[in-house]
Amino acid sequence: MLDYVIKRTGQVVVVLFLALTAVFFIIRLSGDPTALFLPPDASREQLEQFRKQLGFDRPLHVQYTEFMTKAVQGDFGTSLRTREDALQMVINRIPATFQLAFTSLGLSLLIAIPIGIQSAYRRNTWFDQAGVAATVLGQALPSFWLGLILIYLFAVQLQWLPTGGGGSLVHLILPALTLAAYSVARFARFTRSTMLDVLRKDYIRTAKASGVPTYKILSVYALKNTLIPIITLVALDLGVLLGGAVIVEVVFSWPGMGRLLMQSLLNRDFPVVMAGVFLIAFIYAVINFVVDLLYAYVNPQIRFK
Amino acid sequence: MLRKNHLFLLLFICFTVLLAACTPETAGTTPTAPATPQPAGGTENTAAPASVPEELVIGFEADAATMLANTDVNYVTDIQIRNIYDPLIDRDEKGALIPVLATEWKNIDPLTWEFKLRQGVKFTNGEPFNAEAVKFNIDYILDEKNNSFYRSRWKDVKEVKVIDDQTVQVITSQPFPTLLLRIADDLLIMAPKHTKEVGLEKAATDPVGTGAYKFDKWTRDDSLKLVANEEYWQGAPSIKRVTFRIIPEFSARLSAFLGGEIHLFKNVPVDSVERVKSSENGKIELVGSSRINYLALNTFYEGPLKDKRVRQALNYAIDVDELLKSVLNGNGTKMTGPLSKVNADYTETKDYGYDPDKAVALLKEAGIDPKTLKLTLDTPNGRYPMDTHVAQAIASQLQRIGIQVTVQANEWGNHLAKIRQHEMKDMFILGWGPAFDAQGTIENLFTEKAPYSGFYDKDVEAMIQKALPIFDPAERKKAFDELQHRLVEEAAWVPLWQQGDLYAVAKNLQFAPRPDEKFLVFEMKWGQ
Amino acid sequence: MNQSTLTEAAVNPRPASLSRKREPAWRTYMRRLVKSPTGLAGFLIIFVVVILGIFGPWLAPYDPNQAEFAKKLLPPLTDGHLLGTDQLGRDIFSRLIHGTSVSLIIGSCTVLFAGLIGTILGVVAGYFRGWADIIIMRIVDVKLSFPFILLVLVINAVIGAGLQNIIISLVFAGWIVYARVVRSEVLALREKEFILSCVATGVPRWEIIVKHIVPNLFTPIIVLSSLQIATYIIAEASISFLGFGVQPPQPAWGNMLSEGKDYIFSAWWLITFPGVAIVMTALGVNLFGDWLRDVLDPELKGH
Question: How far apart are CA A221 and CA C158, in angstroms?
Fold first, then answer.
C-alpha cells in the first residue's frame, strides 16, 4: 500500500509541474498585459518602462526560471490589477466554489441515485422511460442556457429568487441546480445501468427467493455493489463539475474561483491566471489521488496492477 | 467490506450537504435586500408605506481593484473610492473646474503652481488635512516603488513644496499646461499618517480619507459598503449608508433593479430603456457623457484610406444621424469633430453631412470605383454601447454605394493590442473618455507615437507638437481650434457621437447624472 | 467513461481476412435502427441538422447579416419572420440556419482532427510502449488534470477568437480522450492470439498495425466520436457565450445567445431558439450515439 501511495504521489507532482510549465508558456504567448493596466494616454516609452519594471522584457527562459522557483515556494507574484498576493486571491475564492460544487454534487447524488434505482427496478415502465428521457435531455443542456432560462423563469417572471450574486443560501439555489442538471443526468443513467447489472446477479435472486423484502434488497444488497462504480464516476466527473462551475459562476455572478479566472483571463492578469490554473489542477489532482487511494484500499486488486 | 462502502457513500453525501450549508458565508455579505421596507412601488410590500430606505444600493459592473487612491487608472475603482476621498479640484455638471480641498490656485511662473488649501478639514481618523497631506499624495504617485498606474501622466512634475500648512507649490520640470486637469481627474487625498502607519498593503483594504463617506466593509467581487461621515466638512450626507453591489451581468442588474434590490445602475442598453420606464419603481436619467465614440480611418495601414479624398468620401457616405436614431434610439449627441460639446476646448467644426453622391464623386476622383472597394472594420465587442451593432450598421450604409465592408469583432484586450501594434487595417471603432480637454484627446489619438493613435500626417504632427507646450490660454485656444478644423478637413475620423449615458434610477431617488460618469452619493438624496 | 465500455472489438476482434457476412452489415444496422425509437429519433434529428447545415444557407429566407433597424426585436411570427428578429433587425431563423453550418463545421472538423491525432498517438503509445508511451501518457495526464472547458477557454483566450481558432482550441483539448481510449484498446488487442501469431510469423509491424489493429479500432472510435460531438458543440457554444470563440457578426448559436442575454427582459425569443437548437442537436447526437453503442457493444445494453 505504501508503495502505491508513493508512486501515485510522484505522479501527481510530475503532472503538476508539467501543467504549470505548459500554462506559463501558453499564457506568455498571448502577449504582455501592461497596456491594459496603464491609462490609454501613456506613451510608448512609458509602456516600455512599465514592462521593464514588471520584468516582462526579459528573455522567456529567465522569466520561466524565476517563476518556477518562486511558485514552488508558493509565491505566484502579485496581481497586476489589485497588487494582492495572487495565490491568496485565488485561495480566498475556494470556499465559494466549493460551496457551489459540493452542493451541486450532493443535490445531484440525492436526486439521481434514487431515480436511478427506481428506474432500474421498474425497468421499461413509464417511469423508466420518462427517467431515461429526462436524463438524456439533461446531458444535452448547455449549462449557461439552462441558467439563463432558470433566471428568466424564477427571477424575472416569478421574482422568487435573485438573479445573481453571492452571499446567502438563497443565492445558491439557482446556480447549484443549474450545475447539478448535467450531473443528475449522468449519475442517474449510470446508477440505472449499474443497478440493472447488479439486479441480474445470482445473489440477488437468492435473496429474493429467500423472502428478503424488496426494499431491503434494493437498499442494502444492491446499493452496496453499485457504490464503487458510482464513486469512480463521481471522481471522474469532478473535473466536469469544476469546469462547469466556471460557466455557472459567470452566468450567476457567483463569486468563486471560476469567475476570478475568467476575469483575469480577460484582463490578462497573468499572476492570477497562473495561480488559478495551478490551484484548479492541484485540487483536481488531489481529489483524484484521494479517490484512487480509497479505491485501492477498498479493492486490493487494483494495487497490484 | 460491503458495509464499508455503504457507510462511506452515506457519509460522503452527508458531508457534501453539510459542507455546503455550514461553510461560513465567505461570499461575504448576508442578504443585501434592504433592511428596511422596500422602496416605494413594490407591489408585494405589505409593510407600512416607505419611509426612505436606510441604505442606497448601487449596482456596479465591476469591482474596484484597490481602496488606495492614485493607483489604479480604471474608472470603476475611481468612481467608488471618490466617495471616501476628496480631490483638490473637482468638476461641476458642465465640466468646469471648481474648488474642493483647494480653494485657490495660480501660476507663479510657468513652472510653478501654487495652491491654497481649505482650512479646518479633518480626515475621518482625526488627522488634519494640510499641505503635508497633499505632498504625500503627489509624492506617492511619483514614487516608482508604488507602481502607480498614473505615474506616466505626472512625469513632468518635479517636486512638491510645502510652504505652510495651507499653501503648497507644485514645481514642474517643463511647462505643464494641463496640470490642473490632472489634479482634477487623477488626484485624491489619502490620509498620510494612517497610510504610513498601517502600510500600503493594509491601507489598500482600509482606506481613510476626508470624504463624505467612511469605509465600512469590502468583500471583493461582491460589495463595498460605506457609511456616512457625519463630520463631513460640507455637512452630513443625507443618505446614511451606501453599498456598491458588484453585478457584472447587465440582465442581472436590471433584474435586481426591477425587484427593488438595487436603486441605481448605469449603462442601460438602449433597447431596455422602455422596460425601465414602464416599470413601477424605476425611471431613466440621461446625460451627455464626455466619453466619445468614433470611427478611426487608419492611416498607419497601407490601404486606400491613405488618400484624403477616400477618407472624406467615407465621411459623406456614412449617415451618423441615422445610426444614432436607429441603433442607439437617439441616445447620444452627434459630433462633427474630434471634441465633443462638453469639452472645454470645443469649437464648432464643419459637418460633412450625409451625401452619398458626393462620396461616389470623390472616390471616382481618387480613381476608385466604389463597387470594387473592399474594407475591413474592427470593433470591440460590448465595450461601448451597441458597438458591434454600430459597426454592422456602418457596413450596411457603405454597402449602399457598393463598398464591401468586412466587420471583425474583437475581444477588448485583442482590440487594444491590434491598435497598439499597428495590426489594424482600414477602420476601427474606439472610444475615448472622460475627455474634457483638447490635449488629452489630440495628443493621444492623432500623433505618430501615441499607442492608440490611428492617424499620422507630417504637417498635422508638426502643428500638434507646436500647440502642446503653449501656456498662454488665448494662444492655446487659437492653436487647438485650428487643429480641430484641420483634423476635420483631413477626415482623420468619421466622428460619431458623445455617448448618451443611460441610468436606471429608483423613482424615489433624486440623482442627476454627471458627464464625468461619477457617482457622488453626497449629491444624491431620497425624495421624488 | 468506464473502462469496460467499447470492448466488443476486443472481445471479438476480427482478423481482417476472416470476416464473413451474411447480409450487408449496413442493412442489419438499418433494421435495428428502425426498431429503436430513441435511436431512430436521434438519427432523424442528426439528419435534419446535417441537411440544414449543408443546404440551409441556400434555403434561408433572409440574409443573416442584413440589418434592418426599422424591424428590430420583432416577436416570432410577425411580418414574415418565423422566429422573429434580433436587436439589429436580422432574421433569427436565417441566422439559426447559418449557425447550424458553423456548428457542423466545428463539430466535424474537431472530431476529424482530434480523432486523427488522438488515434495516432494512442496507437503509438499502446503498441510501441516504452518511452513514447510514457511521454504521451504524461501529457495526457497533465491535460486531464484540467477541466476540459477551462482548457479550451485558456487556449482560446490566448490564441484569439475566430472560427479556426476555436477548432484549434477544441482539437488541442480534445485529442486526449481519443488517445486514452485507443491506447487501452491497443493494449488489449496486442495480446490477442491472432496478433501474436502475426508477430511470430514475422509480419512487419506496420502491416500489423494498419491491417489488423486499426480496423478493430473503428468501432470504439466511432462510438466515442458520436458522443464527443455533442461535447464539442456545447463547448463551442459556451466559449462563444463567454466572449471568445466565434465572434459576431458571424452567426453561431453561442454568440447569438451571448448577444441575446441582455434582452432577456424584453425579447425572450433571442435566447430561446438558439438554445433549443443546441439542445436538440446535442440530444440527437446523444440518442444516436447511445443506440450506436448499444448495438456495437452488447455488454452494456442493460437487458
Answer: 51
Backbone angles phi, psi at A34, to 5 degrees: -55, -40
Interchain contact, A168 vs B25, CB within 8 Å: yes
Please write the tens of the pLDDT for every residue from B296-315. Answer: 999 999 989 999 999 999 99
Three cell numbers written together for A128: 423508466
Cα–Cα distance, C159 to C161 (Å, whole number): 7
- Transcribe A178-216 into DSSP letters: HHHHHHHHHHHHHHHHHHHHHHHSHHHHHHHHTT--HHH
Query: Nearest to residue C151, comparing CAs of B217, A19, B154, B293?
Result: A19
A163 at interface of B, judged by CB pairs closer than 8 A: yes
| C47: nearest Cα among C57, C39, C59, C36 | C39
Q: CA A78 to CA A269: how far, in whole Å?
A: 9
Length of chain C: 303
Nearest to C259 by CA among C235, C281, C242, C278: C242
CB B242 within 8 A of CB B213: yes
Task: Write out B74-101 in H/E/C secondary structure.
Answer: CHHHHHHHCCCCCCCEEECCCCCEEECC
- Cα separation, B407 vs A175, in Å, equals 35
- What is the identity of the amino acid at A104? S
Of A17-21, A299-303, B380-384, C6-10, give the lowest mean pLDDT range. Answer: C6-10
Q: How many CB pairs under 8 A join A and C?
A: 132
> Tens of pLDDT along B142-190?
998 888 888 888 888 999 999 999 999 999 998 888 899 889 989 999 9
Q: ipTM of this predicted complex?
A: 0.75
Residues 6 or more apart in contact with residue C229 via CB below 8 angstroms:
C107, C108, C110, C111, C285, C289
A223-252 and A169-200 helices, crossing angle to 10°: 150
Asked whether B511 and B503 are in contact (CB, 8 A), the reply is yes
User: How many angstroms away from the CA of A107 is the closest CA of chain C?
Assistant: 21
* Radius of gyration, alpha carbons of chain A: 24
Question: Which pLDDT value is given to residue B493?
Answer: 92
Chain A closest-CA separation from residue C159 CA (Å): 6
Q: What is the pLDDT of residues C236-262, one digit of tens each?
A: 888 888 877 787 778 888 888 888 887
Q: Cβ distance C270 to C259 under 8 Å?
A: yes
Judged against a pLDDT cut of 80, whether residue C198 lies above it is answered with no
- Nearest C-alpha of chain C: how many angstroms from B450? 24
| Cβ pair C154:A196 closer than 8 A | no
- CA within 13 Å, CB half, A108: 32
Report the residue from C154, C241, C285 with minimal CB separation from A144: C241
Q: Which C positions 13-42 lie with beta carbon below 8 A of chain A?
A: 38
Q: Check residue C15 and give its pLDDT.
A: 56
The rounded distance, in Å, linking the Cα atoms of C292 and C295 is 5
